[in-house]
Write a structure and sequence with these properties.
By secondary structure, the protein is α/β, with parallel strands linked by helices. Helices cover 30% and strands 18% of the residues. The protein has one domain (6-162): Aconitase, domain 4, CATH 3.20.19. The protein has a seven-stranded mixed beta sheet with strand order 4-3-2-1-5-6-7.
Length: 168
């Protein structure tokens, strides 16, 4: 298994109803290149975001993150750009499940964090610590099967590592 027990990163702050067309605009959906998608991630709300985000960063948002069309490219673009987790007060259902399926933690929580703060998320304990302010937030831990999917890096990797090996 990977070491996805803890996530540490710098906060990028967004508001309500960040839709998938803002996360990855439709004009970039003709490509299969994750590099191209990552280069344009969040372009609809911050055209310079892709150039500023670093590996391990965390998005903290308000209500209804990932609403809109059910494009799977949105969580892929975020993860490939370096986002290690998304924390929001609520998620669109399909975005939430797509994120878990690719190994990107989508955490439902109301966290007091400003852009640039440093967060530490303990997925096993169900805790988020804002290292900048010293505040700690209790979150509902993921069920064991979802935590296992996240720790393996996504549903496909989870399946491939968990299934019994057969000889042909």
């Amino acid at each position: 298994m990977s070491t996805m027990d803890k996530v540490d990163g710098r906060v990028w702050r967004f508001g309500d109803s960040i839709d998938t067309d803002v996360i990855i605009p439709g004009r970039y959906l003709r490509t299969f290149s994750l590099d191209v998608l990552a280069a344009h991630v969040m372009e609809g709300v911050d055209p310079d975001f892709a150039g500023k985000v670093r590996k391990g960063d965390i998005i903290v948002a308000d209500w209804n993150f990932g609403c809109g069309s059910s494009r799977e490219q949105a969580p892929f673009a975020l993860k490939h750009a370096g986002i290690s987790a998304v924390v929001a007060k609520s998620f669109a259902r399909i975005f939430y499940r797509n994120s878990i399926n690719i190994g990107l933690p989508a955490i439902v929580a109301d966290v007091d964090a400003s852009e640039g703060d440093s967060l530490s998320i303990d997925l096993d304990m169900g805790l988020i610590e804002n290292k900048t302010t010293g505040k700690t937030f209790k979150i509902k831990p993921f069920p064991p099967f979802m935590l296992s999917i996240l720790k393996y890096g996504g549903l496909v990797k989870h399946y491939l590592k968990k299934r019994p090996r057969t000889k042909i």
